[in-house]
Amino acid sequence: MDIEVVDSTTRDPVPKAQIRLQDARDEKVWVDVYADQAGHLSFAVPHRQLRILASAPGYADTRVAEEVLLAGGERRPLVIELRASQADGPSIELRR
Asked: What is the spatial distance between Cα 75 and Cα 20, in angstroms, rounded to a whole number?
């Protein structure tokens, strides 16, 4: 999986964003990985249904709208847009 985390307004990379990969069938099973300074990370995931959550300081937490299932060795790009935190409860957008 190739993930890029960007600011939803400026499209600038969000460095060091935390990405949580959670087993869709057992939320007690998860792993956290972190984007690099360019807001990018690339890794292999197991063949199982996953939920993907993203967070970063100064941004509202978000959950990718759909569960993800990749076949062994499959590469899939995913762009996660984080919206800057606001006191009035911001909305989150995701673009593939």
From this structure: 18
Give the burial string for 28-58 (b: 16+ CB within 10 Å, else e). eeeeeeebeeebebeeebeeeebbbbbbbee
Amino acid at 51: R
Q: What is the pTM of this model?
A: 0.81
> Using CA of residue 33, residue 4, residue 65, residue 75, what is the dihedral sign?
negative
Q: Which of 16-20, 82-86, 90-94 tops mean pLDDT?
A: 16-20
Q: What is the spatial distance between Cα 50 and Cα 76, in angstroms, rounded to a whole number?
A: 13
Distance CA 38, CA 68 (A): 23
Q: Which domains does the chain have, with CATH numbers?
A: 2-73 (2.60.40)
Q: What average pLDDT does the structure give for the chain?
A: 87
